[in-house]
Design brief:
single chain, alpha+beta, 4-stranded mixed sheet, 1 helix
Length: 66
């Protein structure tokens, strides 16, 4: 399965990852790698599958300044 993942730098540090196609499927991590690992696991939980082969395509966003 392949999903588009949006990866954003969090203002407080680390990264937030979410899957626009799967509402509420969000994760985070201190590094890009950790955030991507965690979002793969979140996708598996969201879809209720075990050890699925999940591929992610990454779109990155910088935090918006206020």
């Amino acid at each position: 399965m392949r999903f588009w993942v949006t990866l954003e730098r969090a203002e407080e540090g680390g990264y937030v990852a979410y899957v626009p196609y799967l509402p509420g499927c969000v994760s985070q991590g201190e590094t890009r790698e950790e955030a991507l690992r965690n979002i793969r696991e979140a996708i598996e939980v969201y879809l209720d599958v075990e050890d699925a082969e999940v591929e992610v395509e990454i779109g990155e966003k910088e935090p918006q300044r206020r």
